[in-house]
Write a structure and sequence with these properties.
This protein has 405 residues and is α/β, with parallel strands linked by helices. The chain has two domains: 133 residues, Alpha-Beta Complex (Aspartate Aminotransferase, domain 1), CATH 3.90.1150; 254 residues, Aspartate Aminotransferase, domain 2 (3-Layer(aba) Sandwich), CATH 3.40.640.10. Helices cover 40% and strands 17% of the residues. The strands form five sheets. A seven-stranded mixed β-sheet has the order 4-10-9-8-7-5-6, with helices on both faces. Strands 13-14-17-16 form a four-stranded antiparallel β-sheet, with helices on one face. A two-stranded antiparallel sheet has the order 1-2. α11 runs parallel beside α14. The longest helix has 21 residues. The protein starts with a helix and ends with a helix. 46% of the residues are buried. Bound molecules: 4'-deoxy-4'-aminopyridoxal-5'-phosphate. 4'-deoxy-4'-aminopyridoxal-5'-phosphate binds next to α4.
Length: 405
């Protein structure tokens, strides 16, 4: 491994604490990651040294805050290799990015009777905004199914695309199964049929190198809080010709060019989609998180996470009655499972008493739960700061808990 795990763990103050007198084992990274000290410092520094409202800057503080805010936009542009900074829109998270895209794309491009393909493994965030839009426009949602390994049945995609299909909405990485979807392959097929593609990158951006030009996606969305950055910050990337056609999602300050009661004109990209005072300090601190992540190297982080995934999977598999959901070979460091005869909620609650943080429930993916005929799972999800020793603690605790039932 090419990074210093001990040093990395020291960067994260929250990981040093004890829960119920046991060292914290944080395996809920797919829900939200923890922050290194330098991201916390960046937040503090913004508020103590150069906080002011951005863009209408006639004074020193506002000017400095504006520069730092816009610097993060460039960092995001570089991170995902977007063609231009105008294509990076700051939102409050993936959810808002999807709502923005669904509303504005719907207004510009969707007619009654049109179809949007959504996969069966989507998070509710990548289902409901498209349903809302379909409801408003009289469009139809078509479901791309998955198989029992938790793999997208992309061989069925071609026959699901009709002359009325306008967009495919799909996640890059499943938050439940860990499945990494073949986005490039889907994009090539979609574009060959004149269909646009929206990718939910919430679970991908911290774990995969993203190149939106190489993937050739039309939209890509993600959240800073799953990338060791602050909560309340997200990104929507879009192809310029689409963003230019799309109407604003929210009205307010900054998104306008001129306001008249006889009619208002809108600002240029990306400001047309950034109404009101944004999360200034959060965006600035997100820049620090991107620097941190790039300094470690996403590819190094991902390699270690794969070691952890395989190490944990190998120890979970032999446990009697345990079933893992999501067994496609190409997967991210997320393990969802159930144990026969034990409710997932009881497992999670008991693991917590050992200082182990996992997530239980439907993981905002009801259709996926329905596919497997279950109410929920236990989910352990790893980040680069996790260790094999923590997995040993987790496996030992899990076996103890199971033996109690
Ligand atoms: N999509 C996926 C795949 C997710 O895992 C999540 C977060 N659990 C979201 C969307 C929503 O992200 P946020 O809550 O940051 O808006």
């Amino acid at each position: 491994m090419s990074f210093d795990l001990k040093k990395i763990r020291e960067d994260f103050p929250i990981l040093q604490q004890k829960i119920y007198n046991r060292p914290l084992v944080y395996f809920d990274n797919a829900a939200t990651t923890q922050r290194p000290q330098l991201v916390i410092d960046a937040l503090t520094r913004t508020y103590t040294e150069y906080y002011g409202n951005i863009h209408r800057a006639a004074h020193f503080l506002a000017d400095k805050a504006t520069l730092a805010y816009e610097e993060t936009r460039e960092k995001v542009q570089n991170l995902i290799n977007a063609e231009s900074r105008e294509q990076i829109i700051f939102t409050k998270g993936t959810t808002e990015s999807i709502n923005l895209a669904a509303f504005a794309f719907g207004e510009s491009y969707i007619q009654e009777g049109d179809e949007i393909i959504v996969s069966e493994m989507e998070h509710h965030s990548n289902i409901v905004p498209w349903q809302l839009m379909a409801g408003r426009k009289g469009a139809k949602i078509i479901v791309l199914p998955i198989d029992d390994k938790g793999r997208l049945e992309i061989e069925k995609l071609e026959s699901l695309i009709s002359p009325r299909t306008k967009l495919i909405a799909v996640t890059h990485v499943s938050n439940v199964l860990g499945t990494i979807n073949p986005i490039k392959q889907i994009t090539v097929l979609a574009h060959s049929r004149n269909v646009r593609i929206f990718v939910d990158g919430a679970q991908a951006a911290a774990h995969l190198l993203i190149d939106v030009q190489d993937l050739d996606v039309d939209f890509y969305a993600f959240s800073a809080h799953k990338m060791y950055g602050p909560n309340g910050v997200g990104v929507l990337y879009g192809k310029k010709e689409l963003l230019e056609q799309m109407p604003p999602y929210q009205g307010g300050g900054e998104m306008i060019s001129e306001v008249r009661f006889s009619g208002t004109t809108y600002n240029e990209l990306p400001y047309k989609f950034e109404a009101g005072t944004p999360n200034i300090s959060g965006v600035i601190a997100f820049g620090a998180a991107i620097d941190y992540l790039e300094n470690i190297g996403i590819e190094h982080a991902a390699a270690w996470e794969t070691v952890l995934l395989n190490y944990a999977t190998d120890q979970l598999r032999p446990i009697p009655g345990l079933r893992i959901y999501g067994t496609q070979a190409d997967k991210s460091a997320v393990i969802s499972f159930n144990v026969e005869g034990v409710h997932f909620f009881d497992l999670g609650t008991m693991l917590d008493k050992f200082g182990i943080a996992v997530r239980t429930g439907h993981h905002c993916a009801d259709p996926l739960m329905e596919h497997f005929g279950i109410q929920g799972t236990v989910r352990a999800s790893f980040a680069f700061y996790n260790t094999k020793e923590e997995i040993d603690v987790f496996i030992e605790a899990l076996k103890k808990v199971i033996s109690m039932f």
